[in-house]
Amino acid sequence: xxxxxxxxIVVVIIIGLVVIAYAHNKQIxxxxxxxxxxxxxxxxxxxxxxxxxxxxxSFKKNPMGGYFIKG
Length: 71
Description:
single chain, mainly alpha, 1 helix, 65% helix, rod-shaped, DUF1433 domain-containing protein, transmembrane helix, membrane, plasmid
């Protein structure tokens, strides 16, 4: 019975670590997306005529490691 409890505790700890790692990675990605949206908006503001606003509809990662932004 003692081995069973130890196994359950180890599995719970591993699941907890996976959830924490996923949440941390998601937070980093969201911060990166937010930063890039600000940079793109600033670029459009100073380099396009009659530019008013930008709305991003999708943000996908391409196979080469870059991102496709649609909006």
